Amino acid sequence: MGKAGLVSEGRNEHQRGPRMLVENVRLMDRMSSKKPALGTLYLTASHVIFVENVPETRKETWILHSEISSIEKQATTAGGCPLLIRCKNFQVLHLVVPQERDCQDVYISLLRLARPVKYEELFCFSFNPKLDKEEREQGWTLVDLREEYKRMGTPNSYWHLSDVNRDYRVCDSYPTDVYVPRSATAHIIVGSSKFRSRRRFPALCYYCKDTNASICRSSQPLSGFSARCLEDEQMLQAIRRANPGSDFMYVVDTRPKLNAMANRAAGKGYENEDNYANIKFQFIGIENIHVMRSSLQKMLEVCELRSPSMSDFLWGLENSGWLKHIKAILDAGVFIAKAVAEEGTSVLVHCSDGWDRTAQVCSVASLLLDPHYRTLKGFMVLIEKDWISFGHKFHHRYGHLDGDPKEISPVIDQFLECVWQLTEQFPCAFEFNERFLVHIQHHIYSCQFGTFLCNSQKERRELRIQERTHSLWAHLWKNRADYLNPLFRADHSQARGTLRPPTSPCNFTYKFWSGMYNRFEKGMQPRQSVTDYLMAVKEETQQLEEELQVLEERLEKIHKIPLSDTPGNREPGAPQSKCPGLSASTPSVGNPAADSGGQPKSSPSRSPSQGDDDSALILTQENLKSSDPDLSANSDQESGVEDLSCRSPSGGECLPSEDSGKDPDPDEAVFLTA
Amino acid sequence: MEFSELIRTGRAEAFLLPGPGQSPVRGTLCITSHHLLLSAGHGSPSDLWLLLRNVDAVEKRAAGNSGTITLKCKDLNVLQLEIEGLEETLDIAGSIEALSSLESVTTSYPFFYRPQSLKLGEAEDLHPPDHFYQQVALETNGWRLSTVNRDFNVCASYPPALVVPRGIGDEVLARSARFRQGGRFPVLCYYHSINGTVMLRSSQPLQGANRRRCAEDEELLKAALALGGGRGLVLDTRSAQAVKQARITGGGTEAKAAYSGWKRLHRPLERGRPLQDSFVRLVEACTDPSLSMDRWLSRLDGCRWLTHVKEALTIACLAAQGMDREGVCILVHGAEGTDVTLLVTSLTQLILDPKCRTLRGFQSLLEREWIQAGHPFQQRCAHSAYAQGRPKHEAPIFLLFLDCVWQLSRQFPLSLEFGEGMLLALFEHAYASPFGTFLCNSEKERYLCEVKTKTHSLWSSLNQSKERKRLCNPIYSPNPLALWPSVEPQSLQLWAGLFLRWTRPPEPAQEAWEQLWKIVTEREVADPL
């Protein structure tokens, strides 16, 4: 079924791109010496698909072309020609193609497909989740930044929405809506912008109602060794005065001091405390995008080691420096959050251009300060505000189109990891779960939705993204049941107020995130999901309570029925049919293995109609059972099902162990070699 | 001996400095024979009650007319007391040092502890010595309960009742015992009812340099093999090199030629001094405030603790896989067979046998495979990670076992009936406890000290319903399958709940635990059926 569906799909898309089919390809299991899976490899206009030959399962692996980060063709061996496809979501596909020539063809095609040169080639422009126009447009209004600034308490007597950047006249990488101090005139803003890299003048990022302190962001000043700018100095003064409770403000340069000093030679640099009244200047020392890119590369090499020893792993991880960088970003966030919440002091944050480290640090600080950003909706707003609207260069950083590889860097990945580290430290403080972060990371690279396209708001408007693509936020919001953290309680002490991660000694609170970087090595992950189990329990509780209410209402009615009514003479619509359903729908939680039949209710998003728009999140359909109607129906490209094994109590309970029970994984339990 | 002789000063005014999970107390400090008390007066809730046995090291510092005593506890907590008066400080420090290191078992606190909620001796029936045999007998009649060791004459570290092949008489056992270090002849410790394979444990055979053999020992293992399916594997927890060394001093391992059907595999596990050092270094690293993030991971690696966890789990998986998948009988031993041998046999059972994963089943496993099997708790847990001076017999093998269980519980969070609280409690009680359960080194010693009749059992205390919320896993759902853990470094974590317990704020984890219980309880309320 998989094959037929795919071929016809390919035919439809014939005009749009190449299609290729190679049989008898082997998919190797990277982490173990498990027997490779034999199957057919398909190349469509948008995906690489591998379908296993096993007739019962026909397990499928789908990969969007835009997810591919590198393709490596290795030397042909007797067994065939190995092809390594590495993805930006950390999946690695190790294929062996029988014929060298076929392998070369696949390789050449993929090289082209994985590096689109025009935006129109990206999947989001052809992705069609069958929503009508209105629904699609509504999706784009889900996150509303004007509403968000209103929620923070602006505009107010100190801050207002300025139209100075109308039509992107002052700064083309800023949004049109910019909040600045009321006392900052257009003259001051424009003057200040001319003194800042890429004209990214100081603008409001977060306003704290309780203390009046604010977080503003900008790029570095063009100060060189001695240059000054009166308007820029006035701009900072205006920001400081907008917080009457404090007589000074912090200026935080998130770069290492040496880097900032080097910039002075190029006519850039940092604020001189002597020139700006009442500022306290502070370096924080987060490394630049090139250091981060190579750090991630080193860490991924460690993740790819085959059966590493504990030392190999720990040394490799330390040498990559990755966790050190994560800690540096979080420390910066903690510093700023403390200034704003405890000292009541405003902070201006910048790095060089003010779109990478500045975005990381501002969003971490906001997250620590404001519980709203720890909710599902609030987190989307946070990314929209600090990353998308303020011109984080998604296209360049995540290589959406073929471009300069030196521009690529895991900047937002690091932010997501900071958030994950915090969720581990504060398990009740976040409304969303790990899966939410993982899926956002996935879609930053997938280009299935228009949300993260381009480098700036200006570019997105020119491309008419909102008219031509779908919003990721609407998609995530629709499936929010999948992303909830059952331990979250809005009234919990962790969820209220400022989060205060311990500062010292705290090294050991930073952990390797295997749920991200090794997430396709299912065997390495916990085999049972507490989150899914608890969500199912919660849902069941709710259902029981609703049923109880129905029964109580009914009881009340019965009491009201006059005695003359014969028992058989029930009023129409009495929930009689509810009764048998009640007992059938209350499987014992204590024995989840037995209630797999009751499963659908705990995962509403699993129904086939809704599964449609999950298409790129797919990836491996492990444990695909032909007996499951939902799954066997998923043969077309639009209806992927991501891994189910960890989704439900019953699945989580049985499948993995059952799986490992049938199919020993020699890396986990070494075979007898005696 | 009179305790009062050791108490040089019984009373002083003191201030307990706050720490994570420790609120400050100012009040009167009082030293009794077994406790340190610090009370703000009139039943204040934050009173400190410290079992002196829990003190691992005492450090004192004088400053003017007062002093500071730092008490480093075996449960890894560190308490700082400011005491008025220099002389008092020194006297109190001296008293604590003397009282915390008393070696006599029968004057230890468990012999004085009389809680109202428990009755002496009531725990005797909790884990009857023949319980394991009864379970095996339900499945097969190939094995029998031997009382050859009823007077502890054959083996001092074994319990009186042991399970052996039915066809093997007591005289054969006695002769085999003479061929094994400490008399620990091979006995049955787990029967895998799915395929009838068995796991045995013993100590090393006394082969010596001239490769002695023992017909009875060979006969015993042959009979066991015949019952378990015909193929056997000796899992020696030492390297081949270490075995060679052992032969020089009279030890050795099973020669292939002598034991047909048995193959041999050397899988060395760390033990003794190096393991204790590993523990000490890890605790140092976890409490070192000057350690920067750049160096933390290599420091963690240098401690080797996670490597030991990985290796222990790997070998247990190997044994479990051999039994479950390949139908092989396993004999585990190292040298004495009282340390890492028990680590391997108990972990294997936890992996394979769902019964061991219940609250009672786990206690029964500990009772059988650690306490009655003669793990020398008193020697191994005499000191924890802070003690100064050279360790003698200390080694945190039991802690390593608990850590491995914690790793299992992290990878299979629904499959164990007990939670982290249980593992923490076991760690504490193994090192210092008001209960008699972990006293002494063997059943023989416990018998001589009358531990079972004169002290209370930890199990009856843990089984009280008020402990449920602390010890039980609210999301437990029985899992009939084997738990195959991943032993990749990415899958193993530092046990923060234990090693970082006193260095990080406890509230977030506590709230999460309470929330977990709340969700499950709410469901129970909604569906009282």
Task: Describe the overall structure.
The complex is a heterodimer of chains A (674) and B (529). Chain A has 674 residues and is α+β, with helices and mostly antiparallel strands. Among the domains of chain A are: 3-115, PH-domain like, CATH 2.30.29; 165-522, no CATH class. Chain A contains 24 helices and 14 strands. Chain A has helices at 2-12, 100-113, 133-141, 145-152, 186-194, 230-241, 257-264, 289-304, 310-320, 322-343, 357-369, 376-389, 394-397, 411-425, 434-446, 457-463, 465-468, 472-478, 514-517, 530-560, 578-584, 608-611, 629-632, 649-662, and strands at 20-28, 37-43, 47-52, 60-64, 68-73, 81-87, 92-97, 159-162, 178-181, 203-207, 214-218, 249-253, 279-283, 347-350. In chain A, the strands form three sheets. A seven-stranded antiparallel sheet of chain A has the order 4-3-2-1-7-6-5, with helices on both faces. A five-stranded mixed sheet of chain A has the order 10-11-14-12-13, with helices on both faces. In chain A, strand 12, helix 7 and strand 13 form a beta-alpha-beta unit. In chain A, helix 8 packs antiparallel against helix 9, helix 11 packs antiparallel against helix 12 and helix 11 (357-369) runs parallel beside helix 14. The longest helix of chain A is centred in the last third of the chain and has 31 residues, at 530-560. Chain A is globular and about 75 Å long. Mean pLDDT of chain A is 81; it is low at 1-18 and 565-674. In chain B, strand 5 and strand 6 (66-73) form a beta hairpin. Chain B has helices spanning 86-100, 131-139, 170-178, 215-228, 240-248, 272-286, 293-303, 305-324, 340-352, 359-371, 377-380, 397-411, 420-431, 443-448, 451-454, 458-462, 468-471, 496-499, 507-526, and strands spanning 11-16, 25-31, 35-39, 48-51, 55-63, 66-73, 78-84, 143-146, 162-165, 187-192, 197-201, 232-236, 262-266, 329-333. Chain B has two domains: 4-102, Roll (PH-domain like), CATH 2.30.29.30; 188-504, no CATH class. Chain B is built from 19 helices and 14 strands. Helices cover 38% and strands 15% of the residues of chain B. The mean pLDDT of chain B is 91. In chain B, the strands form three sheets. In chain B, strands 4-3-2-1-7-6-5 form a seven-stranded antiparallel sheet, covered by helices on one side. Chain B has 529 residues and is an alpha+beta fold. At the A-B interface, helix 9, helix 10, helix 20 and helix 24 of A face strand 13, helix 7, helix 8 and helix 19 of B. Chain A: This is Myotubularin related protein 7. Chain A: Residues 596-610 have a biased composition (Low complexity). Chain A: Substrate binds at residues 288-289, 351-357. Chain A: Its main location: cytoplasm. Chain A: GO terms for molecular function: phosphatidylinositol-3,5-bisphosphate phosphatase activity; phosphatidylinositol-3-phosphate phosphatase activity.
